[in-house]
């Protein structure tokens, strides 16, 4: 029997906000979620304010709520937050009957979705500090080294 070590996530670095039964299609919400995943908190708010989609407003409120949870419950600084995980799942379908001619009913299906936003505090990354203290480790792992690239900063 092989003993596999599971990597435990530190519960003190992640804060989430969950929005359930939001009346919109999952495809429309995923179109926006894919744009903001992995970005910083301030950059995400600017992107969502300028996007012309109706689904931006509930996502904006969820990100704002996740940041408020992080600052109030954990004492994190909002300037150091990044959106580490954002996912959209299907919710229950609301079914309504619209009256039609000759006493018939036409079924209207309204899609709902559940949106989860997880924010992380970047000031708590110990891996980045280890890289700076041991430069030989960077030379060994240069091909798999993942660094955050900000395309707006020069």
From TrEMBL:
Pfam families: Ribosomal_L22 (PF00237). Transmembrane segments: none annotated. GO terms for molecular function: rRNA binding; structural constituent of ribosome. SUPFAM superfamilies: Ribosomal protein L22 (SSF54843). It is found in: Plastid, Chloroplast. One of its GO terms (biological process) is translation. Its main location: plastid. Part of the 50S ribosomal subunit. NCBIfam families: rplV_bact. Belongs to the universal ribosomal protein uL22 family. PANTHER family: CHLOROPLAST 50S RIBOSOMAL PROTEIN L22-RELATED, LARGE RIBOSOMAL SUBUNIT PROTEIN UL22M. This is Large ribosomal subunit protein uL22c.
């Amino acid at each position: 029997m092989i003993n596999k070590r599971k990597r435990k996530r530190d519960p003190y670095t992640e804060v989430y906000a969950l929005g359930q039964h939001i009346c919109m299609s999952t495809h429309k919400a995923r179109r926006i979620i894919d744009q903001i995943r992995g970005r910083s908190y301030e950059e995400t708010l600017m992107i969502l304010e300028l996007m012309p989609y109706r689904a931006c407003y509930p996502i904006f409120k969820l990100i704002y709520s996740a940041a408020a949870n992080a600052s109030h419950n954990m004492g994190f600084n909002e300037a150091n937050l990044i959106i580490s995980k954002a996912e959209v799942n299907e919710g229950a379908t609301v079914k309504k009957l619209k009256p039609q001619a000759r006493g018939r009913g036409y079924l209207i299906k309204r899609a709902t979705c559940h949106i989860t936003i997880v924010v992380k505090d970047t000031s708590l990354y110990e891996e980045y500090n280890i890289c700076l203290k041991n430069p030989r480790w960077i030379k060994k792992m240069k091909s798999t080294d993942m660094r955050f690239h900000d395309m707006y900063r020069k």
